[in-house]
Structures are given as C-alpha cells and as structure tokens.
Amino acid sequence: MTQKEVAVALHDQKELTDYDLKRYNRQMMIKGFGEEGQKKLKNTKVFVAGVGGLGSPVSTYLAVAGFGRITIADLDVVDLSNLNRQILHWDKDVGNVKVKSGLEKLTQINPSIEVEAFHGKIDENNVYDLIKGHDIIIDAMDNFPTRYLLNRAALKHKIPYIHASVWGLEGRLTTIIPGKTPCFECIFPNAPPKEVFPILGATPGVLGTLQVTEAVKVVLGIGKPVTNRLLIYDGEYMEFHEIEVKKNPKCPACGGK
Amino acid sequence: MKLKVKLFANFREVTKNKEVEVNVKGNTVKDVISSLIHDYPKLEPLMFTGEEIKPYVNILLNGKSVRDHGGFTSKVKEGDDIAVFPPVSGG
Hints:
The complex is a heterodimer.
Chain A: H1 3-6, H2 18-23, H3 25-28, H4 34-42, E1 45-49, H5 55-65, E2 69-74, H6 98-109, E3 114-119, H7 127-131, E4 136-139, H8 144-157, E5 161-167, E6 170-176, H9 184-187, H10 202-220, E7 229-234, E8 239-244
Parallel strand pairs in A: 1-2, 1-4, 2-3, 4-5
Antiparallel strand pairs in A: 5-6, 6-7, 7-8
Chain B: E1 2-7, H1 9-15, E2 19-23, H2 29-39, H3 44-47, E3 48-49, E4 52-53, E5 58-61, E6 64-65, E7 81-85
Parallel strand pairs in B: 1-7
Antiparallel strand pairs in B: 1-2, 3-4, 5-6, 5-7
C-alpha cells in the first residue's frame, strides 16, 4: 500500500493563521509535514473513544499537535483509582464526568481547536451516527465489545481506526484501514474476559503517543503505518515485537474484504 | 525435543519468565502447549476450556498465527519459535 492511498480525504479547508504558523513551527520542520501538513491536521476531525488511560495522552497530544476538531467520548466519572494513569483527570475532578474534565483541560492546553464531548455509552444504536463525519477513530476503549462496535462503524464509513490496548507493562498497537488491511475482528475474532487489569500509567502513555504518531502519519501520508502488523510492546523487558496479521475471509465484520 | 516458548501478560505471571524451555512430547503445536501445561499446571485454566484451547489465546509459530497457518496440528521442529499471548483489553 502506498502512503498516498492511506492519506485521509479531507473536506472543508480552514487556512493556517499566524498563530498556527508560530505555534506549530517545530513540527512543520518534520520531513513531509510543512504548512500543507499542518493545514491537513487543522482540517481533520478525530474521534477519541474513551478518555481514560489511553484517551488522556491521546487527546492531549492530538490537541497540542493542532488536530482541528476532536470529539471525546466516555460514559464514566472520575474515580480516585484512575489517577495513576488518566492524566487528564486530577484530584479535584474525582466524582465528575470524565468528558467534562477532559474538555476543560483540552480547551486550555490548546484554545485554538474545537473539542466536543459525548457523555454516554457507545452502543449499537448510536455508534454509526457518533462516528459519522470523523476522519480518524482512535480506540482508547477498555473493553472488546465496544471495540467491535467501533470497528463495524469504521468499516461502514471507511474511516481509519487506530487500535491500542494495555495490560501491566505491556501494550498492543495496530492501524486498520478499512478495505485495505485486516479489520479489528479479523485480528481479534474472540474477546478476552473483562477484568480489572494491572496497569502502570506510563504504559498507556507509550501506546497513546504511538497512536497519535500513527494518526499524524495516516493523515499526512508520511512514513509507514503499523498496518497488517500487530505491535507488541513488552515494557517489562523493554522489547518491541511485531507479528503479521491477515484478513480473515470468514470475518463476520468485513468478510475479509 | 526441547523448544523455547515466549509468554506474555497474565501467562507470564505463572512462568515468572518471558521465555521458558519446554521438553515437548510429540511434534505439533498442541503438543507444545500440552507439555507447557505439564510443566506449569497453573496455565491450564488460563489457556484451556475443557479440552480446547480458549478461542482468544493467540499462538504464534515463528511469528505467524497458527490460526491463519495450519492450526494447532501444525508440525514443530527443533529451533522453532513459539509465542503464546492473550489479547489484552485495557485502555
């Protein structure tokens, strides 16, 4: 797959301001980025599913990179036990709705972007409408059933879907381009049981920032995204492994297409 | 035949090591897993439901999923690289 093919189609184009040119100067120096790349980010709408361990670094780095429109979705309220990893939420936010806490921080960390919040459960009735109109989906969920729903919506609307999951000092990452790569259900046809999992905050920090790196690459069409591969991060031994993943011709979600 | 098996996430909690050497009786992927369970019986409830390997348990033979390439009856030989990992769901 060429990089041009995975570049996201973009719609209504907002121009860069003098503020943008200064604010994003250092990243526009990256090869293949430039003003044109920054303008693409400004005109990209990202859906961040979950503002917990992964969603905190994901939405923070999307915001400071200047992704122009970010939607955050979560049903939970902040619990004290979240604070070892969910860095968007602070002690003062315990008991408050996570998307409200997230919205407050994100609009302060970058007041020049638009952030929208959806407070509620992503289910089979609303997922297709929630996702519609977004250019990228970032999977920062904590369970497989919702990931399967997001994958279905990504396939229906042909939206790139960047998956990560974490456990302890380990993580997984893959980028899914509907119609080109295996879908989430091809790679994980069976869900593991839901559990209260051990986790160090730095682990979703690693995986979340990798997801944002992938989002930037997919939008700009630079580098080589982690497509057709599953990256396994082993923080305990500080190793990165990679495995090849394939389309499943019998996949109930995409039919191997 | 002796084979090295790599383990991840909660499987590793049982073996206490990222990699263990298993004395394999037989020559299939399933034999490797049975021999692994023989050495580490606490892995059995994590990997098996009754006689069957749990559907979400991923087994890689030389970096490729056995689900996509030949299944649990795939033949193994000395020097092969086996990795076993569960999907993890946390976010």
